[in-house]
Amino acid sequence: MIARAARGAGSGPASLLVLVLALALAGGAIAEPRHGPDQTQPIIQVGDLPREARDTLALIKQGGPFPYKRDGVVFGNRERRLPPRPSGYYREYTVPTPGARDRGARRIVAGTKGEFYYTDDHYNTFRRIRE
To answer: Where are the alpha helices (DSSP H) in 26-112?
Structure first.
């Protein structure tokens, strides 16, 4: 199957896609990113989070108190980097950044069904937290 896909693929981006799909279907050795249950977000284990993120996660689970005024506000998901949900579904919390004079770029976003996402680049990328 792979040889047939490679022979008929030609060259260019489309042929690369055909080859990658053929390898994937054949069980080839393509390293898959670790994704969460929604199959769209990479995973980060709790133990791999920075200490400040683990502390913030613990605060979220106990209901606070939170050190930043904006902790717990609705996260709008305007960038659509998280799975689409109704307005108000996600809440964001600050993960302190040592040495930062402001809130920094790190956040945990919590969904109302108990899922948590970590970003360390101010919402550009997210990883689902696995406990």
So the answer is: 51-62
Could you tell me the residue ranges of all domains in the chain?
1-32, 43-130
d(CA 118, CA 88): 18
- Joined together, the tokens standing for residue 21 give 């799909």
The residue among 98, 106, 45 whose CA lies nearest residue 71 is 106
Query: Running DSSP on this structure, what letter comes out for residue 122?
Result: T
Active site residues: 92, 122
Cα 98 from Cα 107, distance rounded (Å): 13
Closest residue by Cα to residue 56 from 106, 101, 130, 100:
106
CA distances from 29 to 22, 116, 119, 125 (A): 11, 30, 29, 26
pLDDT tens digit sequence for 94-116: 999 999 999 999 999 999 999 99
Average pLDDT, stretch 72-86? 96
**CATH code 3.30.70.100 for 43-130:** no
